[in-house]
Amino acid sequence: MAKCKFVENKKGYEELLSSAAVQNDIERRAQRIKKKADSMTGAVFACKKRKGRKGGRPYAVVAANSRHAKAKNAKHNTLLKSIDAGR
Fold it and tell me: What secondary structure, in 3-state letters, does the chain show?
């Protein structure tokens, strides 16, 4: 059997993870999680798209931003239960 050598291309990883396609996928998944969390309770959760430090990898945050949403999330673990919607 021949030996196989794998060399990582870190710059290529950065370009891939920062690409528009990946950013759109992250946004789509976060919106699905938000929609599921909103439907589980009468509360409205927030979805924010952000960039990492120094132009790093993008990410999205779904959070309870109102008093009502925070109370529902604390009592029912709404955000935790809605994570599967992002798959």
Answer: CCCCCCCCCHHHHHHHHCCHHHHHHHHHHHHHHHHHHHHHCCCCCEEEEEECHHHCCEEEEEECCCHHHHHHHHHHCHHHHCHHHHC
Counting every residue, how long is the chain? 87
Q: Which two tokens stand for residue 76?
A: 């029912």
Question: Mind listing the pLDDT tens digit for each residue in 1-23?
Answer: 789 999 999 899 888 888 899 99
> What are the tens digits of pLDDT across the range 63-85?
999 999 999 999 999 999 999 99
